[in-house]
Predict the structure of MTHFR SAM-binding regulatory domain-containing protein.
Amino acid sequence: MVNQAPRGEGSWSDSSGASNSGGESSKESSRSSTPVLDADRSDRLRDKMRRRMESADRWFSLEFFPPRTTSGAVNLLSRHVARRITEDRTRVTNPVGADWEEEDGGFNYAIDLVKHIRSEFDDYFDICVAGYPTGHPEAESYEEDLRHLKEKVDAGADFVITQLFFRSDTFLKFLDDCRAIGITCPILPGIFPIQGYQSLRQLVKLSKLEVPEEITNVIEPIKDNDAAIRNYGIHQAVEMCRVLLDSGKVPGLHFYTLNREVATMEVLRQLGLWIEDPRRPLPWAVSAHPKRKVEDVRPIFWASRPKSYIYRTQDWDEFPNGRWGNSSSPAFGELNDYYLFYLKSKSSKDALLHMWGEELMKEESVFEVFTCYITAQPNCSGQKVMCLPWNDEPLAPETNLMKDELEKVNRRGVLTINSQPNINGKPSTDPIVGWGPAGGYVFQKAYLEFFTSSENVTALLKVLKKYEPRVNYHIVNVHGRNLTNALDFQPNAVTWGIFPGREIVQPTVVDPVSFMFWKDEAFALWIEQWAKLYEDESPSRMIIKYIHDNYFLVNLVDNDFPLENCLWQVIEDMFEMLDAPPEPV
């Protein structure tokens, strides 16, 4: 598993194949390309639904409406990532409160759009249409509305999701009536847990539904108690869903969340459908995109920024499976449009200033921010540092295994942004470092990645001589000058697992080529997320810019994973060399 590296100090070289972040980031922008239909449609939504129904597994889907602001979009997506929510379908709805206006040649009815899609794109898209358990409010009759629904299905709709309703028997009657007139496609009940008195009134007004008297009698006396109404709404939704699922006629549930999914999650917990702590199939968050279904290897550098990695590799035709390989030219996407969304923190500017310092006085002020993030202790303003530009979430559980060591080195200017402890054969079910199927064993090499000053790097290079070939290192500055003792283009597996009846899995690597692409992003975050919080030419901004321009990005790998992690001793030796009195001339 250990990649032998050439001995010696190595030599400085200029980077190739990667662009420099270069001070303030590029202000160029590019237009997004015209979407191209993906010819690979091997795992379609309707096929997933069919498999679920054939296996009799109970399942659910969640609906969110598009946020109106960039920060709203970031917050919504970050909640999905934190909870491992993946979306298989998107529903486009008319703006709230807007009236539909007919247009000549336009899609005046849903059936017009269904026919157009099938005419222009054949069966490429999976199409869902709306059903109304009590009939559409503008239909002449319930029976007429059912006929219109059948016309939409006959025109090419794949499945139906209903408008919300308040009684389980309302949906079950609607389902039976649909089957009686020949509608055979899946019909999913649209579930809306009542979450507040005013939101219920508004929704009922828009949907033109009547709230049953038994529900009104309960919520009217508690209409000013949001918590009580929410608890009742959860109870009412759970009871209704149980009847639907126990009927044997309902394959799955569709929830209207109104972008407030907490009540929905509680409903799903009580139904036994929400998995609280799913075992990780791999050490990193797996993408639900069909193109990535065989992907099982990634560079470690994006461990805390998986959305960034997915964005920068979205144009790949194939994804690494089994081994990363000795590729000398991975095609990572450029960063021009990247800043507009994916580099944005989910925290507000004010929150970031409270965490990272409204005014920085010296480099040590930055050291303190990193230290507070590691220790979870309040900063000098009494605020906890919950994120950094390179880590938008609290620390991973395995990081706590090295918490004391990380605190010590960050206080002295070794500003860590990524790390993992060495692991030698822990069970794959271990609650902290485990991943993969049960019955296996997982392994890790110790890894440490950090920014530090040129003075520290000078001492570090001298210290590292005595740790070769055990320790591989890669040191680079913002301009792309790098020093490494790793073999060119040779990836080093730093996480692997052994499982019954399977080949060894190596999901995480340190790849020298990918590191040069990562360094652009890592350095750019100093400017894009931190420096730009402050006014131009302000002392705080100049301190961050100085670090960006003069510090180095370093990664270290201890290849002897069965032994005690030596990387902390490497850093300690560096500090001792710096603290030692100068030798007499």
